[in-house]
Amino acid sequence: MILVTGATGDIGRRIVRLLCQQQKPVRSFVRLSSHSNELEHRGSDIFIGDLRREKDIQKACQGVKYIISTHGSGNDSLSLDYRANIELIDQAKIQGVEHFVFISVLGADRGYEDAPVFKAKRAVEKYLQNSGLNYTILRPSGLASNLLPLAERFRETGLYLLIGEATNRTSIVSSDDLAKIAVDSLIIDDARNQILPVGGPEILSRDQIPKIFGRIFNKEPIVINVPLFAVDSVRNLLGFFDSSTQKNLGTFRTLLADEFFCTSEETSNLERIYNFQLENLESFLRRYLAT
Question: pTM, whole model, 2 decimals?
Answer without folding.
Answer: 0.93
